[in-house]
Amino acid sequence: MGDVVEARPAATVVLLRDVPWGSGIEAYLQRRPMTMGFAAGVWVFPGGRVDEADRDAAIEGSWVGPVPAVWAERLGVTVDEARGLLVAACRETFEEAGLLLADPPPRADQLEGARRALLAGDISFAAMLTELGVMLDTARLRYWAWWLTPESEPRRYDTRFFVAGLPPGAAATAHTLEAERERWLPPLDAASLQPMLPPTHYTLRDLTAYRSVAEVLVAGEDRPVEQVMPWIEGDELVMPWLERYPVPSTLLRQQRQGQGGDR
Length: 263
Known about the structure:
Blueprint: E1 8-18, E2 25-31, E3 43-44, E4 47-49, E5 63-64, H1 68-75, H2 79-97, E6 102-103, H3 108-119, H4 125-132, E7 135-137, E8 141-148, E9 157-165, E10 181-185, H5 187-190, H6 198-207, H7 213-221, E11 227-228, E12 231-233, E13 236-238, E14 244-246, H8 249-257
Parallel strand pairs: 1-9, 5-7, 8-11
Antiparallel strand pairs: 1-2, 1-4, 2-3, 2-10, 6-7, 8-9, 12-13, 13-14
């Protein structure tokens, strides 16, 4: 057996909205293009790995809501690691879904230009917040789940899942290089989309128990979160509770072809 690859820290945000025509909630998902190096063609939530710049303490000058030390206690990590995870969650949500979790809400006419500049690397996330005159609002997030890629995988992620409600008047819009499709669906319907990795599927399955975004956010305040790391047996992923989940066919092809890439 070869050496186990160290898992890279990552963060994902499950965006939720109340169904306008009745009780219930919808979750926002994107389908990754088939050209992506990792999890091509798979339905996912916005998210990605933590960049070194995400840990920079300078961003705390544009921060409201629970401070990194509070998040560190909730997540069971250092303050620098907590800051990186929360910033990565918010940055990736903005880059991939065009939604900036900030206070006051940024003007719509400012967002697209700021998003382009951020994606092009022309501005840092902290500098962008300052330029927009807004504060990163981590009070909008709740810690929901923690998934670790199986030890046998060549690319591994240590991913914290957060939930957040869609702010009033805001809209999610996919970045076309990161997503070929986007959908808002009730969690039960969304969980049946294929192909989909287990963390996405089981997070959606958990959310079927809630009838409103407010209920989810209340539940997330003190929700017990334990690390989940499946293992692979043949073409199946085995959960710690021994439920089996078929490895998506696109992921199997990538494994067999030895494809690389981080995203």
